[in-house]
Specification:
The protein is mostly beta strands. The protein is built from no helices and 11 strands. The strands form 2 sheets. Strands 2, 4, 5, 6, 9, 10 and 11 form a 7-stranded mixed β-sheet that branches. A 4-stranded antiparallel β-sheet has the order 1-3-8-7, with no helix packed on it. It starts with a strand and ends with a strand.
């Protein structure tokens, strides 16, 4: 069974840093795209950062220059380094992965979500 396991959320003061990690468990053929999404109370879920299988990245405008997404193919994982955190970054952050278990089928997988709270 394929699962995404997240870690690294928590409470931090404004200006601080947190690192979120997401590991894929289970037997798979290939991880295609990976990304981090977030959802704040009363708001829609939004894409924070994504990284393709080839390492191409994209970011939400408001986090550019502060957040960095990375992935490690060997460990089947991705990380989101968040620096210069602001109170408006407070949200539940969820890992997403587009995974091929058996080529060529692809399916979306989501982590359980981890709370990030930034105090002012």
């Amino acid at each position: 069974q394929v699962q995404l396991v997240e870690s690294g959320g928590g409470l931090v003061q404004a200006g601080g840093s947190l690192r979120l990690s997401c590991a894929v468990s289970g037997n798979i053929f290939r991880i295609n795209h990976m990304a981090w999404y977030r959802q704040a109370p009363g708001k829609q879920r939004e894409l924070v950062a994504g990284v393709s299988r080839l390492g191409e990245t994209n970011y939400l405008d408001s986090v550019k220059g502060r957040f960095t997404i990375s992935r490690d193919h060997a460990s089947k994982s991705a990380a989101l380094q968040m620096n210069g955190l602001k109170p408006e970054d407070t949200a539940v952050y969820s890992c997403y992965a587009d995974i091929t278990i058996t080529f060529p089928s692809r399916r979306d997988y989501w982590g359980q979500g981890t709370q990030v709270t930034v105090s002012s």
